[in-house]
C-alpha cells in the first residue's frame, strides 16, 4: 500500500465516492467538476425528478454525465437504478448485462428528496430482490422508516428492526449497502451482521452532531437526511470509519440544492460537500488520530465490496488552511456549500 502518513501531508491511492448526487442539466454541468477533481469514480444516485428506473434511462443519464465532463478529465460514473414497487425482475438482468449499472437503490416512499416514486412496501419487490440476490446486484438502502409516529431522530434505528433484519433474513446472500449511516445502532448492526453488508459514511456525519443545525440560529445548510444525530452517534461513526473494518467506506452524499430551496420556510434536505470532500474526511480522520486509516476507507474498501479494481494514481492532502467560497454556481442558480466562508484545515493538491 502506498500510504505515507505524516502530520502534515498524506498521499492516498485515488479515492472514489460511493454515494453521490449529480442532478441533471445545467446543475450537473456545474457540480460535476468538483467531484471529478476529488474522485476517480462515483456511485451516482438515481433520484432525479424523473427517477432513473430503467436501463435505458440510466444509459441516457450516463451519456449526459460523460458529455458534461470537463475536457481531458477522466471520471467513471457508476450508475444505479431506482427501485419501485413495479420494477420488473427482468430489468435487473438487463442492468447486470449492461456492465455500467452497479447497484439498485431503495428509497422508502416519502423518506427523502425525490422519493415519491419509491417503494411503499418491500414485499412488493420480492421477485425483483430474488433476481438481485441471484445475479449479485447490490441493493443500496436509504435506511429510514417514514412513519410519522416515529420520531425523526429514531427513524434509522427503527428501520433496522422493521425492515433491514427481515430483509436480510429473507435474502441472506443479497449484497446490501446501508447508505449514509448516522447512528451507533447502524454502525453496530453493520459491524456485527453476517453476510454481505457494508455501509457508507458521509464526512458531515463524522464531523458534526445535531447541535450544528441549531448553533446560534437555524442553519439549513446543515440539514440533511438522515438528519445529524447526537454526539454519541457521531463518535460511533468515527470509530467505525477509522476501525479499518472493510465494511465501512466513503460516500459523501453530496446533495446540491439551489440556495433558495435550502433557505426557505420548508427547506430541502442535503449538504453539498463535493467541493471539499476529501479535505473534510482528512479533518475527521486527523481529529481521531487515524490518518493512516483513511486510504482503506476512501480508496480500498469500496472497490473491494463492489468487486471493482482499485484505482491507479494517487492524491495528496496537505495540512493547510483555506477558505471555502460563500457560494458556487449551480446552473442558473447558486448553491451554498457546507462550511461556506469558513476555514478548512486540509487542502488537496
Ligand atoms: N441526503 C439528503 O439529505 N438528500 C439527498 C437524498 C438522500 O440521499 O437521501 C438529495 O437527493 O438531496
Ligand atoms: Zn438517502
Ligand atoms: Zn443521498
UniProtKB/TrEMBL annotation:
Provide a GO CC annotation, any one. cytosol
Q: What is its EC number?
A: 3.5.2.3
Annotated binding of Zn(2+) 2, by residue: 105, 142, 180
**Where does this protein come from, organism-wise?**
Massilia forsythiae
- For the modification N6-carboxylysine, the affected residues are 105
Instruction: Tell me the active site.
Output: 253
Q: GO: which molecular function terms?
A: dihydroorotase activity; zinc ion binding
Arranged from A to Z, the UniProt key words for this protein are: Hydrolase, Metal-binding, Pyrimidine biosynthesis, Zinc
Q: In which pathway does it act?
A: Pyrimidine metabolism; UMP biosynthesis via de novo pathway; (S)-dihydroorotate from bicarbonate: step 3/3
Record's function text: Catalyzes the reversible cyclization of carbamoyl aspartate to dihydroorotate.
A GO biological process held by the record: 'de novo' pyrimidine nucleobase biosynthetic process
Residue positions annotated to bind Zn(2+) 1 are 19, 21, 105, 253
Q: Which cofactor does it need?
A: Zn(2+)
Q: Tell me what reaction this enzyme catalyses.
A: (S)-dihydroorotate + H2O = N-carbamoyl-L-aspartate + H(+)
Q: Quaternary state and partners of this protein?
A: Homodimer.
According to the lineage, what is the superkingdom?
Bacteria
- Identification of the protein by name: Dihydroorotase
PANTHER family for the chain: DIHYDROOROTASE (PTHR43137)
Against NCBIfam families, the record matches this protein to:
pyrC_dimer (TIGR00856)
Amino acid at each position: 500500500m502506498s500510504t505515507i502518513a505524516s502530520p502534515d501531508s498524506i498521499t492516498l491511492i485515488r479515492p472514489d465516492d460511493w454515494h453521490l448526487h449529480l442532478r441533471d442539466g445545467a446543475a450537473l454541468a456545474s457540480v460535476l467538476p468538483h467531484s471529478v477533481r476529488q474522485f476517480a469514480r462515483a456511485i451516482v444516485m438515481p433520484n432525479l425528478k424523473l427517477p432513473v428506473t430503467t436501463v435505458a434511462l440510466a444509459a441516457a443519464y450516463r451519456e449526459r454525465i460523460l458529455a458534461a465532463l470537463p475536457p481531458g478529465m477522466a471520471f467513471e460514473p457508476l450508475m444505479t437504478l431506482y427501485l419501485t414497487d413495479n420494477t420488473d425482475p427482468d430489468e435487473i438482468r438487463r442492468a447486470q448485462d449492461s456492465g455500467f449499472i452497479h447497484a439498485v437503490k431503495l428509497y422508502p416512499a416519502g423518506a427523502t428528496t425525490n422519493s415519491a416514486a419509491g417503494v411503499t412496501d418491500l414485499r412488493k419487490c420480492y421477485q425483483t430482490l430474488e433476481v438481485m440476490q441471484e445475479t449479485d446486484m447490490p441493493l443500496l438502502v436509504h435506511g429510514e422508516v417514514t412513519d410519522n409516529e416515529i420520531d425523526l431522530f429514531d427513524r434509522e434505528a427503527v428501520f433496522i428492526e422493521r425492515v433491514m433484519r427481515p430483509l436480510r433474513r429473507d435474502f441472506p446472500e443479497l449484497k446490501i449497502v446501508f447508505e449514509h449511516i448516522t447512528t451507533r445502532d447502524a454502525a453496530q448492526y453493520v459491524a456485527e451482521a453476517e453476510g454481505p453488508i457494508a455501509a457508507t459514511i458521509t464526512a458531515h456525519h463524522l464531523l458534526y452532531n445535531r447541535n450544528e443545525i441549531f448553533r446560534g440560529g437555524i442553519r439549513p445548510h446543515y440539514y440533511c437526511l438522515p438528519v445529524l444525530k447526537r454526539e454519541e452517534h457521531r463518535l460511533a461513526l468515527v470509530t467505525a470509519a477509522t476501525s479499518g473494518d472493510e465494511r465501512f467506506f466513503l460516500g459523501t452524499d453530496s446533495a446540491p440544492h439551489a440556495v433558495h430551496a435550502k433557505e426557505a420556510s420548508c427547506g430541502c434536505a442535503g449538504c453539498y460537500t463535493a467541493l471539499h470532500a476529501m479535505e473534510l474526511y482528512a479533518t475527521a480522520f486527523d481529529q481521531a488520530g487515524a490518518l493512516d486509516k483513511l486510504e482503506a476507507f476512501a480508496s480500498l474498501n469500496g472497490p473491494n465490496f463492489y468487486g471493482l479494481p482499485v484505482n491507479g494514481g494517487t492524491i495528496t492532502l496537505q495540512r493547510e488552511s483555506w477558505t471555502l467560497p460563500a457560494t458556487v454556481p449551480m446552473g442558473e442558480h447558486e448553491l451554498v456549500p457546507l462550511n461556506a466562508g469558513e476555514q478548512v484545515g486540509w487542502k488537496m493538491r
